[in-house]
Amino acid sequence: MSDPDNQGRGRGGFDCGCMSRDQLDDEGLPEKLVIKNQQFHKEREQSPRFAQPGSFEYEYAMCWKALIEMEKQQQDQVDCNIKEAQEKLEMEMEADRHEHQVMLMRQDLMRHQEELWRVEELYNQKVQK
Fold it and tell me: Per-residue pLDDT for 23 more than 80?
């Protein structure tokens, strides 16, 4: 009772999310683009080939592996340093913003105090007359 027009859908034709999807793989040639000739099938019959420990290829592979691991560790350290620097800068900015707000409030308070002194001085002059 399979319906060829209802591919990947549950009963009633609703999508159930079962469709096979090609994985995003940006390394190498996608399987569907490989030309499957006689040489391809011959190579596929053999098991994967790995470098033997102690061989020239193995030693260079280990050097590359160590280099890639070192690069990853250094990149992680750089990322960590940048994150710490960003957090430090944000904290400094917040402290400076707070300090600026306090300075503005003090200036405003000084203006109000001066205005109050002027008004008080004017009042005292009127009272003395």
Answer: no
Distances (CA, A) of 72 to 68, 69, 80: 6, 5, 12
| pLDDT at residue 83 tops 70 | yes
| H-helix or E-strand spanning residue 106 | helix 56-128
pLDDT of residue 55: 94
The structural domains of the chain, with segments of one domain joined by +, span 56-128
> DSSP of 22-60, one letter per residue?
-----SS--GGGS---HHHHHHHHSPP--PPTTSHHHHH
The kind and range of the H/E element at 107 are helix 56-128
φ/ψ of residue 15, rounded to 5? -70, 125
CB 26 within 8 A of CB 20: no
**Contact of 57 with 51, CB cutoff 8 Å:** yes
Closest CA to 51 of 40, 61, 66: 61
